[in-house]
Amino acid sequence: MKVGLFGANGRMGRVLIEALDQSDQAELSVATVRDDSPWVNMNVGELAGIGKQAIDCSAMSSLTAKDADVMIDFTLPVIFETNIAWCVEHKMPVVIGTTGLSEAQLATLDEAAKQIPIVFAANYSVGVNLMLSLVRQAASVLGHTADIEITEAHHRFKQDAPSGTAMAIGEAIADELGRDLKTCAVYGREGKEPERDQGTIGFATVRAGDIVGEHTALFADIGERLEITHKASSRLTFAKGAVHAAQWLHGKDAGPYSMVDVLNLKL
Ligand SMILES: NC(=O)C1=CN([C@@H]2O[C@H](COP(=O)(O)OP(=O)(O)OC[C@H]3O[C@@H](n4cnc5c(N)ncnc54)[C@H](OP(=O)(O)O)[C@@H]3O)[C@@H](O)[C@H]2O)C=CC1
Ligand SMILES: O=C(O)C1=N[C@H](C(=O)O)C[C@H](O)C1
């Protein structure tokens, strides 16, 4: 199966090249970069630091529908519309990992999924997708009495906050409790504040150094607290999950799919 990459030179793009090199079933067939990128014609293996590979990076404008069976897109929201429009126009299934998408962009994604198969997940690790079930269970038992706080930490280069995963954890907990995250979320605190409102879900963000990605959901009452934590120590975890998703997506009907579908995690 032929897999293509948008944004081959990004942090995730480079580890996706590595994950595809390690895959027995998926083969990297095209790796795009901006038309004016210094990486156009750079060998993908040399870009990823894994030794020379069969193909070089291509300018985005040279991409054709014959180049891949499925595309993978881990880029930034600024280029999201361009990439998804290309996939819709060329009837190309796509695995999307870009986070920080706006409400309008999520609506565009839903519209596109009426025409092409799309896997979209804020986090492609098995552990985080299991965590999304565990926090629901914790919320159903403790959530009506405990204070709920979600904390996340990432590297200094990350451009969106809170992380997509933190938002997905918040959505899962709010959904389980019948709350609307839009109205119950509190993002950071500063200065003099009234006593904590138990109906809220708090978010706190750390950006530092080279932290790959850490998330904790805290359920705290008087006398006890439960913390559910996931720590990613390698981006290869996300990349391997995305390659797995691409293989799973190949041949599927149009529709929106999640990593829970890919992993069949109906817990
Ligand atoms: N779902 C998941 O499991 C995970 C999701 N992510 C998400 O993946 C995304 C990428 O992360 P990361 O690799 O660290 O980010 P990087 O900043 O390292 O890479 C971003 C990529 O997008 C490209 N890009 C940015 N702006 C433009 C533009 N205007 N036109 C064309 N290309 C553009 C960059 O190309 P250029 O260098 O030329 O600008 C680069 O290839 C983020 O949204 C992150 O949150 C990350 C890890 C896991
Ligand atoms: O930007 C990152 O690096 C990551 N982004 C994703 C997110 O926003 O949740 C997933 C992972 O934590 C790494």
TrEMBL record:
Q: Which GO terms describe its cellular component?
A: cytosol
Q: Which residues bind NAD(+)?
A: G7, A8, N9, G10, R11, M12, G97, T98, T99, A121, A122, N123, Y124
GO MF annotations in UniProt? 4-hydroxy-tetrahydrodipicolinate reductase; NAD binding; NADP binding; oxidoreductase activity, acting on CH or CH2 groups, NAD or NADP as acceptor
List the keywords (alphabetical). Answer: Amino-acid biosynthesis, Cytoplasm, Diaminopimelate biosynthesis, Lysine biosynthesis, NAD, NADP, Oxidoreductase
Binding residues annotated for NADP(+), in chain numbering: R34
What compartments host this protein?
Answer: Cytoplasm
Under which pathway is this protein filed?
Amino-acid biosynthesis; L-lysine biosynthesis via DAP pathway; (S)-tetrahydrodipicolinate from L-aspartate: step 4/4
Subunit structure, interactors included: Homotetramer.
Q: Which HAMAP family match?
A: DapB (MF_00102)
* Name of the protein in question: 4-hydroxy-tetrahydrodipicolinate reductase
Which organism is this protein's natural source? Alteromonas profundi
